[in-house]
Specification:
single chain, 130 residues, alpha+beta, PH-domain like, 2 domains, 3-stranded antiparallel beta sheet
């Protein structure tokens, strides 16, 4: 609703503004751009979270991370470790791949639960099914 209000306010201000006052012509696109980014973030992260959708799914073959639409197969992983963000304090779990391709990471920020427990669960699955 807030995004719709911002968009309507920008459009109204641009339409009804006097020709000599062009501040809304400059600010309008910037506000619309920020509103689009906010809408994307809400759709990508907030809605699945509020609907209780699964972000991380583990099975005997692979790990599926819904935030990035990424699947990592246990047989392709060489090792697993984690990195703690300096500013955020959230964990990123890093997967070193056997074929030498770039390391893959998943963030625990959007996964419900304790970071260490999530990491240990992933390592347990990796050890069991590699």
């Amino acid at each position: 609703m807030l995004l719709s209000g911002l968009i309507l306010l920008c459009l109204y201000a641009i339409i009804t503004d006097t020709p000599g006052d062009n501040i809304w012509e400059l600010m309008g696109p910037a506000i619309l751009f920020l509103a689009a980014i906010l809408a994307y973030v809400c759709r990508k992260f907030l809605l699945p979270l509020t609907q209780g959708k699964t972000i991380l799914e583990l099975d005997k073959n692979k790990l599926q991370y819904a935030v990035k639409n990424d699947s990592i197969y246990w047989k392709d992983i060489d090792s697993i470790n984690y990195v703690i963000g300096v500013k955020t304090g959230s964990w990123s779990i890093r997967f070193v791949m056997k074929d030498g391709s770039r390391d893959r990471k998943i963030s625990t920020k959007y996964i419900a639960g304790d970071d260490k427990t999530i990491y240990n669960t992933i390592v347990d699955y990796f050890e069991k099914y590699k």
